């Protein structure tokens, strides 16, 4: 589950041991260990308090699900690493050509303007 990983990540980022985090929260070290191993799932409010005790902030937002890139991801997952690299290089060359064309079209002098 994500909760235990989230708590452990916050604790490690804060440079705290389980004992130190437990002391900040008024809990025992074994409670912290059980949370981190997902043996016990704390409430969302408790997770927020744990994150804050680590000097971090936990924020959530709800947005519409966007699966517009799923087909691209699936396509790339079916490729071998060599195929993905070749595809990347082809897109890079295409991008460079577009940039070059754009810069060339902007640097040409307009024949209708006298200098």
List the helices and strands and how they pair.
Blueprint (H helix, E strand, L loop, with lengths): L1 H12 L4 H8 L3 H8 L7 H10 L16 H9 L2 H27 L8
Helix pairs in contact: 1-3, 2-3
Write the CATH fold name of the largest domain.
Answer: 434 Repressor (Amino-terminal Domain)
Number of domains: 2
- Shape summary: elongated
Please provide the count of β strands. Answer: 0
β-strand percent reads under 5%
Fourth CATH level, the homologous superfamily of the largest domain: lambda repressor-like DNA-binding domains
**Percent range for helical residues?**
55-70%
Question: Helical element count?
Answer: 6
What's the end-to-end separation, in Å? Answer: 69 Å
Largest sheet: none
Top-tier CATH class of the largest domain: Mainly Alpha
Succession of helices and strands: HHHHHH
CATH architecture of the largest domain: Orthogonal Bundle
Mean pLDDT: 90
Radius of gyration: 26 Å
Write down the oligomeric state: single chain
Low-confidence spans: none
Describe what this molecule looks like in 3D.
- The chain has two domains: 2-53, lambda repressor-like DNA-binding domains (434 Repressor (Amino-terminal Domain)), CATH 1.10.260.40; 70-107.
- It contains six helices and no strands.
- The model has no long low-confidence stretch (mean pLDDT 90).
- It has helices spanning 2-13, 18-25, 29-36, 44-53, 70-78, 81-107.
- The protein has 115 residues and is an all-alpha fold.
- 64% of the residues lie in helices and 0% in strands.
- The longest helix is centred in the last third of the chain and has 27 residues, at 81-107.
- The chain is elongated, with a radius of gyration of 26 Å.
């Amino acid at each position: 589950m994500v909760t235990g990983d989230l708590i452990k990540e916050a604790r490690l980022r804060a440079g705290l041991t389980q004992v130190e985090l437990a002391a900040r929260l008024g809990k025992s070290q074994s409670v912290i260990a059980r949370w981190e191993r997902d043996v016990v799932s704390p409430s969302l409010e408790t997770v927020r308090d744990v994150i804050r005790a680590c000097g971090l902030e936990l924020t959530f937002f709800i947005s519409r699900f966007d699966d517009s890139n799923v087909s691209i991801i699936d396509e790339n997952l079916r490729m071998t690493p060599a195929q993905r690299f070749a595809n990347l290089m082809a897109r890079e060359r295409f991008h460079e050509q577009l940039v070059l064309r754009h810069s060339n079209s902007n640097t040409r002098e307009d024949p209708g303007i006298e200098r």
